[in-house]
Hints:
The complex is a heterodimer of chains A (82) and B (376).
Chain A: E1 4-9, E2 12-17, H1 22-28, E3 35-36, E4 42-43, E5 56-59, E6 62-66, E7 77-79
Chain B: E1 3-11, H1 15-26, E2 31-35, H2 43-46, E3 50-51, H3 58-74, E4 89-93, H4 96-111, E5 117-120, H5 121-127, E6 137-141, E7 145-146, H6 149-162, E8 166-169, E9 173-177, E10 180-183, E11 188-196, H7 202-205, E12 212-223, E13 231-234, H8 237-242, E14 248-255, E15 260-269, H9 278-291, E16 300-310, E17 317-320, E18 327-331, H10 337-353, H11 367-375
Parallel strand pairs in B: 1-2, 1-11, 2-8, 4-13, 11-18
Antiparallel strand pairs in B: 3-7, 4-6, 5-6, 9-10, 10-11, 12-15, 12-16, 13-14, 14-15, 17-18
Helix pairs in contact in B: 1-6, 1-10, 3-10
Amino acid sequence: MPETVTLVVNGVSVEMPAGSMVSAAILKLGLTTFRQSVTGEPRGPICGMGICFECRVTIDDEPHCRSCQTVCRDGMDVRTDG
Amino acid sequence: MSSKTYDVVIIGAGIVGSACAAECARAGLKVAIVEAGIIGGGATAAGMGHLVVMDDSEAQFALTRYSQQLWDEIRDELPREVEHDACGTIWIAADDDEMTEALRKAKFYSDRGVPVEILDTHSLAEAEPQLRPGLVGGLRVPGDSVIYPPCAAQFFVDQALSGGAELFLGVAVETITAGSVRLRDGTSISAGLIVNSAGSWSPKLTAGLEVKKRKGHLVITDRYPNFLRHQLVELGYLKSAHSIATDSVAFNIQPRKTGQLLIGSSRQYDVEESYVDISILTRMLDRAVEYLPGLRKLSSLRTWTGFRAATPDKLPLIGPHAEEERLYLATGHEGLGITTSLGTAKLLVDQITGRESAIPVAPYLPSRMAQETVHA
């Protein structure tokens, strides 16, 4: 099993330790706005345990995925809405 | 104990009562509105808000068509939060029988001046790419639209209030007697006329009304803008909505202006409790996924139920009570109360003030029920 995986966040390659969550990969790039609220306010992970739904991003074209509950995979395409 | 006098007391500020109150105030009547809960908090809040022309019967067509024209007239006055969306409806034909029904419906509508467009397999897939392949076709009714009904009810109440109406909010009605309404807090309101527009609660206030609760479930998803463009309803809906004896589900889905999807529908009689019934909900969502396989990947945010106020002949009760003096009814709208609220308000006030009506009122008169009972 490889010790690292490489995924793409907003077009940028990020290498992460295997088993990391997508939210960690996004934060590693220094991004804190994961999505925007209905009224355009910035939103990012609050609870880190799948309850608050504030960390949602688009993963492989599927919108509203909770990045704090999704494990990084090789070749994954992640898009924030910041 | 206080006592006040009005020309009309409207009981129930759902969308029907609210529209009636606004129309009464416009006609110069002194109006009181009594609402036990919140404005538009019953079936008005639970339903989809589909402004739709229907053709179960000539009378149903006449009232829905007339009402839709009234909605079109006020479209530009509606506040933004009413979320009016002229998305149109597509009636979906899954097999040849349903396509025959689509063609019959197309003829019925166009004979009566409602614009329609017949879709074949390809044009249906082009109009709604998320639909499963292989559906036979459909019927597009571009004049149908969607609103957020509780805000429309609030808008009508505001119109009534600026026309001089008074609102008694948060107090339930204890009893209705000829010319008087007594509230649970002891307030007594005297009026020339009383209008029972309490929807599924109306039979509790007026004994003997042939209005039964018909439970429905809805699910709303997260925001997925452009997943759908039209409200979609299966033509098989006609088979299930007509079946009075059994629980039924039908594919009926609506895109909201927010990008959310409102997924229905279910119909159940003889269930008084509002709990979410998992077996019905599962059937309902399975049905929706049959038509839109991509739904399976979307997240739902909330599920709820509501009660339609259903009459035996699927037409509302609009007009004077058959026996009780000074009591009028505006109830029993089943799943069409949002659409037909405006037509109901006009027909009610026409009868109260002796105005001529734009469409015949006879099919909706409460006295038809008494006649049917005699013949039965």
